[in-house]
Amino acid sequence: MTYTELGSGSGKTLLLLPGTCCNWETNFASVLDALAATYHLVCVNYDGFDGSGAIFPDMLTVTQKIERHIQEHFGGRVDGAIGSSLGGSFVGQLIQRRNIHIDHGIMGSCDFDQSGRLAAKLQTKLVYPFLAGAARNDKKQEKMKKLLKNFFLMNEETAARFMRCFASFSPESILNEYYTDLITPLEDAISVPHTKVHIIYALKMGKKYGRRYRKYFLDPDIREFDMQHEQWLFGEARFAEPVLRAIDEWMEQPV
Prior knowledge:
With 255 residues, the protein is α/β, with parallel strands linked by helices.
């Protein structure tokens, strides 16, 4: 695990948690300067995705490591945490476990897929060959790159950047991250005093995601954006600017 601090030393503390098979340098590259101008950023790379050669163990073990770091270095409290995609699962875990306190939990385009172990194993068995192959095989990398461009609407440069990141990780870490995210449950109607949950809801993901946000969190603050999954992070100002404004508004709200 690595923790890199950037940005305003006097600003509010904001934890950045990247998504599936990604590091913070790639995940938040297009908005990092804008966030660092206002906030004291704590950027996290998980085991298996930090360049150390370690293998990602499971969601709960990594969550516990994040908790310990916040306890030891920030007195057990941060002003905010942004979780991109799978990173939102970590934000949800950190809030519901109550071992540290987060004033503002911000989650972007999280699917919050949950399943039992058998179903998760079957799903992982189907998806893993593609994911692992894309991490090592040139032809499968091109297929993954095409998916990033066509489904996630990344431009050529952004898709290439994400693929370079993805291809650098161990297939075992990818497997463990994917599988344990599915089997690590969130409670229904999570509510913690003096913590506000904010959702960056990409409408092109579909209505079922809005239902999930309301299932897992009690009265979440959901902001709708006409974009695809995490499109605000792919380098286009027309998507990034309204989300960054929303983050600033959320971070100023009293808890």
